[in-house]
Design brief:
The structure holds 2 protein chains of 2 kinds. Chain A is of the alpha+beta class. Helix content of chain A is 43%, strand content 18%. Chain A folds into 2 domains: 10-51; 57-170, 2-Layer Sandwich (Alpha-Beta Plaits), CATH 3.30.70. Chain B has 14 helices and 10 strands. Chain B has a 4-stranded antiparallel β-sheet with strand order 2-3-1-4. Chain B has a 4-stranded antiparallel β-sheet with strand order 6-7-5-10, with helices on one face. Classes of the chains: A alpha+beta, B alpha+beta. The A-B interface holds A 1-6, 68, 99, 102-105, 127-129, 132-133, 135-141, 159, 161, 185-188, 190-191 and B 98, 103-104, 207-210, 212-213, 318-323, 325-326, 367, 370-371, 374-375, 378-379, 381-382, 384, 386, 394, 396, 398.
């Protein structure tokens, strides 16, 4: 059952035989490497033998998830003048859109302009599956989304029934995805911060 | 009387008629073995399928017919039409287990036949407020397929006829449905503003102002809707044990039972009757749903984790950006099996056949069901909780239920999965014209 365990457990250690096989495969892949790389590879053995208790799985149509945290990576072509407009918009808002805070499920967002401002790489860590809440975003923050996405080629407008497909066509799957706190959703992290503060204030008072 | 802007004579009755009280009924699942037999079945059934015309009078029994994707295939529906149905519907409920959080005991491999086998092609339901009319309508329906070549009866399940119309845990259920714009009736107090018809019926503008994508041709899609059918076995022993372990007196147990749902077993909402049950309030449809959570921001009356608050948060401030009007469904709970037994406490009692065939209807029932299952039922982030729905959630080991209290909340450990999924199907409920269109395929 893929339910989210509430408590951290110790990583499982693979049997030596399996680690041996994996090492063999790696040696084969690195057979043309110089000696110092081969020696470095041997040093990885310890790390390879441990598997963490949450592993990468799929999120939504494309994309990876670990625990409750998913990744979305998009590489989209800019519309004419889109790069310049978006750069100014990002600078004016310091990349911090008021709407993002309201969304409550976005851990971070990264905007990287590629290939002479012809494309943008957008990468984000978020909770759950992005298309589950898309209709809510369309209903609640359509203007914010339109103002950003209009800078990309072929944006059909936020109320188009094809926006899920529009976004998915530019999505790139991550080969690997690591999350240090795989059980911490955005609301949960905020809650813990509040509890920590309250607990310390309480301890300050009684100490 | 509010304006009618829906084509009520086209829409099947179940979508708008409320469940009668008392209620009686039967669900029948059929397999189409050859396309001709399937079309003949629809030909014969169509004259007996009821529309939603004058639905507010509902003094008669009615019959509803729905089809699964496999059923549409078996009828010989053209490829282009099949492709125009949404992916989740085409895959079917069993294949969507991961999207529905149907893991562990709820996994399709643990379902009862014929669910999950891909053989359910037609689901026929008879509803009635009267025992004699129910038998007559059932007999009429059976006459249409009993000796029909090319159609096989898979199962038949009677429902309703429960003492006091209560569900398998002894609650009055089905209170508080979304109001649908253009359906002809003023919303009841507390029902909220009417929601755009397109959220529930294909072919009309939805909340975003445009109609949802519908199957083609138009005559097939328009005035139809989708149904998510889920069969639950109610573990009444586990439920009673939970109440006994966590409540010392009958009064404490009743209060705990009310906290789990947000309503007393009578149906009286805790928001309006926080201290003790109020059967008169419960019985008054103009009062029993007339509340919001403005005066209960801490959940002292209705816990954030209570089933009713999770499934319809109303004005609760949510931790995630949400338009609550996009996640509403029309529900028709149909209780089957042995009545609730307050003295049942054994594990054997958990397996006595009783529970609910839960019917959820909307123009995007698959999306809504999957959203609810993943986000509102089996996760708690939206309510700032780390717990699952106490009624239909799939509980982990040492799952909890929190009752907000001042100064310190009460957190109850060891809540179990009270309703176990035993089957389910995504179904299409075509309009009456669409049923005729399907019956005439190939001619």
């Amino acid at each position: 059952m893929q339910t989210q365990q509430e408590t951290q457990s110790k990583p499982t250690v693979l049997p030596q035989k399996e680690v041996d096989t994996m090492m063999q495969d790696l040696r084969e892949l690195y057979k043309d490497a110089p000696d110092y790389i081969k020696r470095a590879l041997e040093e990885l053995r310890g790390g390879i033998s441990e598997i963490p208790d949450t592993l990468m799985e799929t999120a939504g149509r494309i994309g990876a998830r670990q625990g409750v945290v998913s990744e979305l990576t998009v590489i989209a072509p800019f519309a004419k003048g889109g790069a310049e407009r978006l750069r100014k918009l990002l600078a004016l808002t310091h990349g911090n859109f008021s709407a993002t805070e309201k969304v409550g499920s976005v851990h971070d967002m990264r905007f990287v302009f590629l290939e002479n401002d012809t494309k943008m790489l957008f990468a984000t860590a978020y909770d759950g599956d992005w298309d589950d809440y898309l209709d809510d975003f369309v209903s609640k923050i359509p203007n914010e989304l339109d103002v950003i996405f209009w800078n990309f080629e072929g944006w059909p407008g936020i109320h188009s029934p094809s926006i899920k497909d529009y976004i998915a066509q530019f999505q790139v799957a991550a080969e690997a995805w690591y999350v240090s706190n795989p059980r911490l959703s955005v609301p949960q992290a905020k809650r813990l911060e509040k509890i920590d503060k309250a607990l310390n204030e309480f301890l300050d008072k009684i100490s | 009387m509010a304006t009618v802007s829906l084509e009520l004579t086209e829409i099947q009755a179940t979508l708008l008629r409320s469940r009668p009280a008392p209620y009686y009924g039967t669900h029948v699942m059929l397999r189409i073995d050859d396309a001709r037999g399937g079309r003949e079945l629809l030909h014969r059934l169509v004259p007996h399928v009821d529309s939603a015309a004058d639905w507010w009078l509902h003094d008669n029994a009615w019959t509803a017919v729905t089809l699964s994707y496999a059923g549409l295939v078996a009828l010989g529906t053209p490829e282009a039409t099949l492709r125009s149905f949404p992916t989740a519907f085409r895959e079917g409920m069993a294949a969507r287990a991961e999207h529905l959080f149907d893991f562990g005991p709820n996994e399709p491999k643990n379902w009862e036949a014929p669910f999950g086998s891909g053989q359910i092609h037609v689901a026929l339901s008879v509803f009635s407020g009267d025992q004699t009319k129910w038998r007559l309508a059932s007999e009429t329906a059976w006459t249409q397929f009993r000796e029909l070549q090319g159609v096989t009866l898979l199962m038949s399940q009677d429902f309703g006829a429960q003492p006091g119309d209560l569900n398998s845990f002894g609650y009055k259920d089905g209170i508080g449905q979304p109001a649908i714009e253009g359906s002809g009736v003023e919303p009841l107090p507390g029902q909220g503003r009417p929601i755009k018809a397109g959220e529930f019926i294909l072919g009309y503008p939805g909340e975003s102002g445009v109609p949802l994508v519908m199957p083609q041709p138009d005559i097939l899609g328009r005035n139809g809707t989708y149904v998510a059918l889920r069969k639950y076995q109610s573990r009444v022993g586990a439920f009673n044990r939970f109440l006994r372990e966590n409540g010392n007196t009958p009064e404490e147990r009743e209060l705990l039972a009310a906290k789990l749902v947000g309503r007393w077993r009578s149906g009286a909402p805790l928001t309006l009757a926080p201290e003790r049950d109020d059967p008169a309030l419960a019985a008054d449809p103009r009062r029993n749903n007339d509340f919001d959570y403005a005066k209960d921001p801490h959940g002292y009356q209705v816990p954030f984790g209570a089933h009713m608050r999770r499934m319809n948060p109303r004005d609760t401030e949510l931790a995630q950006l949400t338009d609550v009007n996009l996640h509403r469904i029309v529900r028709r709970g149909t209780t089957y099996g042995a009545p609730y037994d307050p003295d049942a406490v054994s594990e054997g009692d958990d397996e006595i056949p009783r529970g609910v065939y839960f019917i959820a209807m909307s123009a995007k029932a698959m999306d809504t069901m999957e959203f609810l299952q993943k986000e509102w039922i089996n996760k708690g982030d939206f309510m700032n909780l780390r717990e699952r729905d106490p009624q239909i959630g799939l509980q982990d080991k040492d799952s909890v239920f929190t009752i907000p209290q001042h100064p310190v909340r009460r957190r109850i450990h060891g809540i179990e999965t009270f309703n176990v999924l035993r089957g389910g199907e995504y179904l299409f409920m075509p309009s009456l014209s669409a049923l005729r269109w399907l019956a005439n395929l190939g001619s």
